[in-house]
Structure formats: structure tokens, C-alpha cells
């Protein structure tokens, strides 16, 4: 662990956080900055529960930690964006073998195949869409999203972002994130009885 990452965690050390799922049964816990462990299966962050028990969380699950205002902790959100783009680039590499620029499937089939990498890239984006307000995360997300649009349109890499979006009929990632965030927030406000009718 570098000193820079320790300082980032130390700044967020005093923030009370909650998990999204029911694993901790609603108990508040805090991240201890100097209590992270490297194990055989990757880095784990130790969270100390209010009941004085330690819970080991995988690093990607620790990205699902919220602060008091239900906004993601900044560096955890960056981890989430990095994880999503890395995973989507692997999917795009596998799909690019099925979609060569010369020949290959039609544009409709290409769009269907590209929707797989788009769904991997935008998984959970309704919750962490605030991360796209920074230029670093927006560029990182747009780079992976642009590659799938280029494959759909069978275009060269020199085509501009706006033109490739129009040709491939794909929304920009910022608009897609805001749309999914809006739908998520609207669904949260609906009472349970209204959704059953």
C-alpha cells in the first residue's frame, strides 16, 4: 500500500459507512485506514463494526460503501469506474474477434453484441453516476464506450466521438448515466403497492 493511498483512506477514516446489502444487518461500521490486509485472493479491507467485530470485505465490495449523504466516497468510486472499464475492455476484446471491421455481422447484430459490453460498463451506474462529473472518470468511461461504438459502425479510430455516436446510434455515456440514475431514483420513490398494480 503506497503512502498516497494510505492518506486517501485516512481522510475518509472517520466517515460512518453502510453496506448496500443486508450482510451487516444495518449496523454502522467505519473503515480503519491502517488495517487493510493483503491475502492470497486479493486485497481486503477490514471494517470494524460497532459491536467490536471485524468483517473482511473484498476491495471491490468496499466500493459499495456509502457516506452519510448517500454519495460514494471519492476514491472508492474511482475504483468502481476502473473495475468496470477493465472488465468491459476484456469483454470488448473477446467480442472484437466476432466483429472484424471488414465483413462480419450486420450493424444490427453488431449493436446487439456491443450491448453486452455496454451493460458490463454501465453496471450499477445509476448509483455511481456522480463519478462522471470528474474529467478523469468521464474520459476513462468514454474510451471504452467509444471502442464499442466504433465496432458497431465499422469505422476507423479517427472518427470523432460525436460522429461515431450518431452513426452507431449510441447515446453518450453521460446521458445514459443520467437516464439510468433518474429511473433508479424514480423507482426508489414508488411505494411497494403501486408497483404491484
Give the C-alpha Rg.
20 Å
Report mean pLDDT, rounded to a whole number.
69
- Briefly note the structural class of the backbone: alpha+beta
Portion in strands: 5-15%
Helix content: 40-55%
What is the β-strand count?
A: 5
Which sequence of SSEs, written as H and E, runs from N to C? HEEEEEHHHHHHH
Count of DSSP-assigned helices: 8
Report the major sheet. 3 strands, antiparallel
Q: What coarse outline follows from CA principal-axis ratios?
A: globular
Quote the distance from N terminus to C terminus.
52 Å
Q: Biggest sheet: strands side by side, in what order?
A: 2-3-4
| Low-pLDDT ranges | 12-41, 45-72, 193-197
Describe how the helices and strands are arranged.
Layout: H1 3-11, E1 18-19, E2 29-39, E3 42-49, E4 54-58, E5 65-66, H2 74-96, H3 107-121, H4 125-128, H5 135-153, H6 161-168, H7 173-189, H8 192-196
Antiparallel strand pairs: 1-5, 2-3, 3-4
Helix pairs in contact: 2-3, 2-5, 3-5, 5-6
Question: What does it look like?
Answer:
This protein is an alpha+beta fold and about 200 residues long. Helices cover about 50% and strands about 15% of the residues. It has 8 helices and 5 strands; from the N terminus they run αβββββααααααα. It has helices spanning about 5-10, 75-95, 105-120, 125-130, 135-155, 160-170, 175-190, 190-195; strands at about 20, 30-40, 40-50, 55-60, 65. A 3-stranded antiparallel sheet has the order 2-3-4. A hairpin with a 4-residue loop joins strand 3 (about 40-50) and strand 4 (about 55-60). Helix 2 (about 75-95) runs antiparallel to helix 3 and helix 3 (about 105-120) runs antiparallel to helix 5. The relative contact order is 0.09.
Amino acid at each position: 500500500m503506497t503512502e498516497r493511498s494510505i492518506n486517501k483512506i485516512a481522510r475518509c477514516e472517520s466517515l460512518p459507512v453502510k453496506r448496500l446489502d443486508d450482510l451487516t444487518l444495518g449496523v454502522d461500521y467505519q473503515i480503519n485506514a491502517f488495517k487493510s490486509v493483503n491475502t492470497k485472493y486479493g486485497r481486503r479491507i477490514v471494517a470494524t463494526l460497532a459491536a467490536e467485530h471485524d468483517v473482511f470485505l473484498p476491495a471491490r465490495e468496499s466500493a459499495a460503501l456509502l457516506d452519510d449523504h448517500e454519495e460514494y466516497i471519492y476514491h472508492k468510486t474511482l475504483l468502481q469506474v476502473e473495475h468496470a472499464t477493465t472488465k468491459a475492455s476484456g469483454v470488448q476484446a473477446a467480442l472484437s474477434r466476432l466483429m472484424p471491421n471488414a465483413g462480419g455481422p450486420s450493424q444490427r447484430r453488431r449493436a446487439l453484441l456491443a450491448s453486452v459490453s455496454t451493460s458490463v460498463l454501465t453496471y450499477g451506474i445509476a448509483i455511481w453516476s456522480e463519478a462522471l462529473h470528474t474529467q478523469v472518470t468521464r474520459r476513462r468511461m468514454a474510451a471504452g464506450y467509444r471502442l464499442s461504438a466504433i465496432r458497431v459502425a465499422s469505422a476507423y479510430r479517427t472518427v470523432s466521438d460525436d460522429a461515431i455516436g450518431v452513426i452507431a446510434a449510441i447515446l453518450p455515456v453521460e446521458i445514459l448515466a443520467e437516464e439510468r440514475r433518474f429511473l433508479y431514483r424514480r423507482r426508489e420513490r414508488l411505494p411497494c403497492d403501486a408497483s404491484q398494480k
